[in-house]
Structures are given as structure tokens and as C-alpha cells.
Amino acid sequence: MKHNEAVGIYHLDAGGAAGSASHIDLVDAGDAPADGPHNVDHICLKVRDFDEAAIRAYLEGHGVATQPAATRFGADGSGPSINIKDPDGNGLELKGRADTVSQPQTKPA
Questions:
Q1: I want to staple 24 with a disulfide (CB 3.0 to 4.6 A). Which of 12, 31, 89, 105 is the partner?
Q2: Measured between alpha carbons, how far is 106 from 109 in angstroms, rounded to an integer?
Q3: How confident is the model at residue 43 (pLDDT cuts 50, 70, 90)?
């Protein structure tokens, strides 16, 4: 298990060898309202060939609202990601390859 204290996340490997592409992020949900979609903070999917413009164009072409990619910390380190919501309001993170350059980190939405 890895802990990123700066953003309050615990990263658990979820199958395969340590450092595998599958992991679970645990965060404190605080006082989440009972009627909201707070069963999972977000699910992260690794995108092999991360092309922000192509990803956003595809999603927006299918009616999915997007925001510009941000550098976020994950199980493999900091890298570009796009956060979106599913129809129930659950978070989905599309994550590119981890950068080797240290950059400011963004707390997950």
C-alpha cells in the first residue's frame, strides 16, 4: 500500500504484481449525504496512448462533459488525467502514463 499524505489518498494494488495497472484509491468521504452517489470516490482507468484532444473530442461528441486534463498523483506517480462523471454521478478518471518530472498535484474531485 502506498500513502500520499499531501492529498489524503491510500493506493492499494488490486491484482497482479506490485505496481500493476489495477489499483484502488481510498479516501475519506467525510460526511457524505446518504442520498448521493458516494459508494466510490472514483474508478481510474489507465489509457495507454493518452491524447487529451482526441479523448475530449470523443467524449464531448457523445455528450459527456469534460474539463482540461490535469496532472494528478496515482499508483504509478504523477501524470495527466481527465476526470468525468458517469450518469449516477460516480467519478471516472482516465489516466495517462506517469510523468518523470515532479509537478504540482491536484486532489481528486
A1: 12
A2: 9
A3: confident
